[in-house]
From TrEMBL, chain A:
Protein name: AIM24 family protein
Segments traversing the membrane: none
InterPro entries attached to this UniProt entry: AIM24, AIM24_sf, Trp_RNA-bd_attenuator-like_dom
Pfam families cross-referenced by the UniProt entry: AIM24
Length: 273, 216, 202
């Protein structure tokens, strides 16, 4: 009798202990090991799968971390989703068996879908992006992000399906691109109003131009996101002011009251756009 | 135009003027250049295509025609993507597993029942998939989706392969399929009534099997 | 996906996990009873039955379940503890049984019973993503998220660790987070997923 794995699986399983686990590197494509030497990392809740050593986990917002938050955490809406890990040891991070990768920023900035970010060093500052549902990391340091399938890096100009977008670095914000041909004309109008004739599902993309890098994941299945509330209702703040309802501000299709595939969907509902 | 596999879940295709590529609607991840995505109701190849289009439309996995000039990346739902390059033979595949394929391939539908007696009817019941299976024939590439990894099992005349109908993805070559209800199989292996059948493939060719009993 | 080449011998496998085979195979259903199998079969308190089949024949048999990753564990007389839903396939010669692990189940409502596999041979266990194997030794205890735990071997003591403080600004999710703490000598298999997390919020 002969057992053999056909796909995946380690040939002969490697056994890790605190010495052989990598320091701030991937154990396998789906697991990342962070070493703490008295230092701190911020991580999203539920992403720690195991640890060696003495590590304490505290919710952000707990008094001890006031100073840390002042420098590294500027996203009050997401405060409930984050914990601070502090101590000595090695911990493993993973997220729903999705691909996990670390990225180094050097005096840079990167904007990432909130659900994809797993952990980051406090030397980075986390801020909410103007684009709802996205977070921006600024500064120098390492962060860990998950993606459904390996992340693919692309250079602009590029149009991206909103659901395949993981994030972007150094680019100006993406803008919406609507397929003009699809919406124009009588047939287009009927289609968008009634759905008769079907949509190609690709009438709306995010368009990137200029210098920078766009990060894509191979799947259109969005990572689950926790509701995080809304930003305050101020004039000029996109996505501000929950609960005024309606479909304003979604472009011509939104005004028709038709939710096209690929629109912001959950963000839209969550933020009351 | 062959697909370039970027990773196990994403493929890239070059679109050149004058050539059409069909893909499942909503499967475009990103593109560069001037490319149009048109819902394909009646399809490119007359009646046959229309048949696929209609059939598929009922299952809410309609196709779109991709034309223009540029580069398009396809992927869907985090499913694994298997690229099959056809050199004249026929690929049999469930329409909702088609991610994208060359427009030059000759499309058709086959009533599974015509080949294996009760096969078609039973298969439809078993998997919840239709009675029809899409066929693609000619020279070109097809990107097929599967839940979990895919393995290709060769079928040779004296070595038939038995497959769980729900793990079956596609097959090509000169292959006869037969639904067998091997004695005891129903009780032994089936979790419910569904898995009481096994699909026997014999002849010369290959079958693609996914590492899961889940449909897409 | 797991490929098993059989030359007249047999394996035990989770019911319905066969996805393809070539050659000649005979499938035999094994239900409640006999050689400790009962445990594996009827361990669920909910009344849901896990059934096991025995596959015997000549040829290659392919097993898979819900696109899970498959990890092979070679046993040389020691005992493997695994959640029964994570056990895909074993050599027919391995003994399977059940142990009561009330502690861990206490809070989660899950895993009150764990399947044990004992003997010499190979077992295939499933995980959501490839498992990482972590060594536990006297000076290196290990804490694991209950949702990421799949299996362990060796002489390990499990305990609930609730010394993890968790407080938040807005009080959401506040409370204690639980981890399983392993002490002793052995190996722990964890999966890169917290999909089934019931006790941990970290």
């Amino acid at each position: 009798m002969n057992f053999g794995p056909v796909t995946g699986g380690p040939g002969g399983p490697t056994v890790f202990d605190p010495y052989t686990l990598p320091s701030d590197d991937n154990v396998n494509p789906y697991t990342f090991c962070v070493e703490l030497k008295g230092s701190q990392w911020l991580l999203q809740k539920g992403k720690m799968i195991a640890y060696y050593g003495r590590i304490e986990f505290d919710g952000v917002g707990h008094g001890r971390f006031d100073r840390l938050l002042r420098t590294s955490f500027h996203s009050p809406l997401h405060a409930g989703d984050w914990v601070v890990a502090e101590g000595q040891g090695k911990m493993l991070l993973a997220d729903r068996a999705y691909d996990v990768n670390s990225y180094d920023l050097d005096e840079g900035n990167l904007t990432i879908r909130a659900g994809n970010l797993l952990a980051y060093q406090p030397s980075l500052a986390l801020k909410q992006s103007i684009v709802p549902g996205f977070l921006t990391l600024i500064g120098t340091g390492k962060f860990v992000a998950a993606s459904n399938g390996p992340v693919v890096f692309m250079e602009p100009p590029l149009r991206v399906d909103p659901q395949a977008l993981v994030g972007w670095a150094d680019c100006p914000s993406p803008c919406h691109h609507y397929d003009h041909g699809y919406m124009s004309g009588v047939l287009g109008g009927i289609r968008s109003l009634t759905g008769i004739g079907g949509s190609s599902g690709e009438e709306h993309q995010f368009e990137f131009v200029g210098a920078g890098t766009v990060l894509l994941q191979s799947s259109e299945a969005l990572m689950a996101e926790r509701p995080v509330g809304t930003v305050g209702a101020e004039p000029g703040v996109p996505g501000a002011g929950a609960g005024h309802g309606g479909h304003g501000g979604q472009g011509p299709l939104g005004q028709l009251g038709v939710r096209m595939p690929g629109q912001l969907g959950d963000f839209q509902r969550r933020l009351g756009l | 135009m062959p697909f370039r596999e970027i990773n196990s879940k994403m493929v890239e295709a070059q679109i050149v003027p004058g050539q059409t590529l069909y893909s499942q609607r909503g499967a475009m991840l990103a593109y560069r250049g001037s490319v149009s995505f048109t819902p394909s109701i009646t399809g490119g190849q007359g009646g046959v295509m229309g048949m696929i289009g209609r059939r598929v439309a009922n299952e809410q996995t309609p196709l779109m025609a991709v034309e223009g000039s540029g580069t398009v990346m396809f992927g869907h739902g985090g499913h694994h993507v298997q690229v099959v390059n056809l050199t004249g033979e026929t690929l049999y595949v469930e329409a909702d597993r088609l991610l994208a394929f060359d427009g030059t391939l000759q499309q058709g539908t086959m009533f599974m029942g015509s080949q294996g007696g009760v096969m078609g009817m039973v298969r439809g019941q078993v998997t919840g998939q239709g009675l029809f299976t899409t066929t693609l024939k000619g020279h070109g590439s097809v990107a097929v989706m599967a839940h979990g990894g895919v393995i290709e099992l060769p079928i040779t005349p004296n070595r038939p392969v038995h497959v769980d109908p729900q793990a079956y993805v596609a097959h090509h070559g000169d292959v006869r399929n037969k639904l067998s209800t091997a004695l005891g199989w129903r009780d032994m292996v089936g979790r419910g009534s569904g898995e009481a059948f096994q699909l026997e493939l014999s002849g010369q060719g290959a079958v693609y099997v996914q590492a899961s009993e889940e449909k897409l | 996906m797991l490929a098993v080449d059989l030359t007249g011998d047999a394996v035990k496998a989770k019911n319905g996990s066969m996805v393809a085979y070539d050659g000649q195979m005979a499938f035999k259903k094994m239900t409640g009873g006999g050689e400790g199998l009962r445990g594996m079969v009827t361990r669920r308190l909910t009344g849901e039955q896990m059934t096991v089949m025995e596959v015997q024949g000549h040829g290659t048999c392919f097993f898979a379940d819900r696109a899970s990753e498959i990890n092979l564990v070679g046993l040389h007389g020691e005992k493997l503890y695994v959640e029964s839903s994570n056990l895909l396939c074993t050599d027919a010669g391995l003994r399977t049984g059940t142990t009561f692990t009330g502690l861990r189940g206490g809070a989660t409502g899950n895993g009150l019973f764990t399947t044990t596999v004992e003997g010499t041979g190979q077992a295939a266990i499933m995980s959501d993503g490839p498992a990482v194997v972590l060594r536990v030794s006297a000076q290196y205890p290990l804490s694991v998220d209950p949702g990421a735990y799949i299996a362990h071997t060796g002489d390990l003591r499990q305990s609930f660790q609730s010394g993890v403080t968790f407080r938040t600004l807005i009080g959401e999710g506040s409370g204690e987070a639980f981890q399983i703490r392993f002490e002793g000598e052995g190996l722990v298999y964890v999966q890169p997923s917290e999909r089934n997390t019931v006790g941990g919020d970290i």
